[in-house]
Design brief:
The complex is a heterodimer of chains A (126) and B (220).
Chain A (H helix, E strand, L loop, with lengths): L2 H17 L5 E10 L6 H12 L8 E7 L2 E4 L5 E3 L15 E5 L3 E9 L5 H7 L1
Parallel strand pairs in A: 1-2
Antiparallel strand pairs in A: 1-6, 3-4, 3-5
Chain B lengths: L1 E8 L2 H16 L3 E6 L6 H12 L5 E7 L4 H7 L4 E6 L8 H7 L10 E5 L16 E7 L6 H4 L1 H6 L2 E5 L11 H11 L4 E4 L8 H16 L2
Parallel strand pairs in B: 2-5, 2-6, 3-4, 3-5, 6-7, 7-8
Helix pairs in contact in B: 1-4
The chains are: A alpha+beta (126), B alpha/beta (220).
């Protein structure tokens, strides 16, 4: 249950990014969250609603791209993603595998509305 | 509508502070171990048993992370450790920032080993680098042998896994080979060791491992 801390860290980065775009309105935050990252998207979405309530980011959409746990097998050379974690390569069963994805906790991009005809002024204020 | 490419780790602020902590620890010439496990797997007992064997040889500091009470700090102090208790007041993990706040209170100059005992939890501490040299996960035979796959992040992020309470293996259905296999599948580089902190099995090997890690760090 560290979704509140993770959400706060995410918002710190969002706030710093938005400070570079004065007057812009934040519409969407897009995250990459690995299925093995220990962050539960539903709890993160709840935490986001709680933290942002009544503030400038209230009502912003949180889009979570859930990334499956995946890797490659050093025995058969194939890459794979797990539907469910298993004790080895889903292709050949070897345990000589490397997990390469599914632990992500990343902010990918923000979608904003720039202030109309105000972009230059905004840059100057910066 | 404009898209801003951020491409940043959510934990990047924590990582920046963790790197600062790491520099402070390196300047102090200490080896730092971040110990993570579920509650009741024997973190404090392992520290007590380690102190009984190494406190005369090394100056050992412990940073104790708990939601509340100084009980664990009292226990390790009684076995010869210095250090400090951090109460997270409900927080389920330590963060790099919490550790950086207590660093000025620690005499790192005269210390050799620093153990950070994280809040008992296999989930939340996994994503918080504290500036340690090695992140270690402690398992125990009284938990299920299927824990690694159920909590993959911590096993993926750890460089050392120790299975505690092996003296109880004859009485429990715990399949230690299976547990170790699950660790290896998640993290082929992870070292694995077996101990009984209470009865002493494997403790010589464990202490040698710590001596080796400290020597390797000091050799640069």
């Amino acid at each position: 249950m560290h979704e509140l801390s993770i959400c706060q860290s995410m918002l710190d980065i969002v706030e710093r990014t938005m400070n570079q775009h004065p007057g812009a309105k934040l519409k969407t935050i897009r995250l990459d969250i690995g299925k093995g990252s220990t962050i539960e998207p539903i709890l993160l979405t709840d935490a986001f609603a709680i933290i942002t309530e009544g503030g400038p980011f209230a009502g912003v959409e949180l889009e979570i791209n859930s990334i499956p746990i995946g890797g490659s097998c050093r025995a058969c050379g194939k890459s794979f993603t797990y539907q469910e974690l298993a004790l080895g390569c889903p292709e050949c069963g070897s345990t000589d595998i490397v997990i390469e994805s599914g632990m992500e906790l990343d902010i990918r991009e923000l979608e904003i509305d720039e202030p109309e005809g105000d972009t230059e002024k905004g840059r100057e204020e910066e | 509508m404009t898209k801003i490419n951020v491409e940043k780790k959510i934990q990047s602020d924590n990582e920046t502070i963790a790197e600062k902590n790491r520099r402070v620890f390196t300047d102090g010439d200490v080896f730092v171990l971040n110990i993570i496990s579920s509650p009741g797997s024997g973190k404090t007992t392992l520290l007590e048993a380690t102190l009984d064997r190494l406190a005369s040889e090394f100056n050992i500091l412990v940073i104790e992370g708990d939601v509340t009470t100084e009980r664990d700090m009292d226990r390790v102090r009684a076995h010869g450790a210095g250090g400090i208790q951090i109460n997270t007041g409900g927080g389920c993990h330590l963060s790099a920032n919490m550790v950086s706040e207590v660093l000025p209170d620690l005499d790192l100059e005269s210390a050799d080993l620093v153990f950070i005992e994280n809040v008992g939890n296999l989930i939340c501490p996994a994503t918080y680098d504290l500036g340690e040299d090695v992140r270690m996960v402690l398992l125990s035979t009284t938990e299920g042998d299927d824990k690694p796959m159920k909590y993959p992040a911590i096993f993926h992020e750890s460089q050392m896994a120790v299975v505690n309470k092996i003296d109880l293996l004859p009485y429990l259905p715990y399949d230690i080979e299976r547990a170790e296999k699950e660790v290896r599948v998640l993290n082929p580089q992870c070292e694995i060791m077996r101990v009984s902190a209470l009865k002493g099995d494997g403790m010589d090997e464990w202490c040698d491992w710590l001596r080796g890690k400290l020597a390797a760090k000091r050799a640069g």
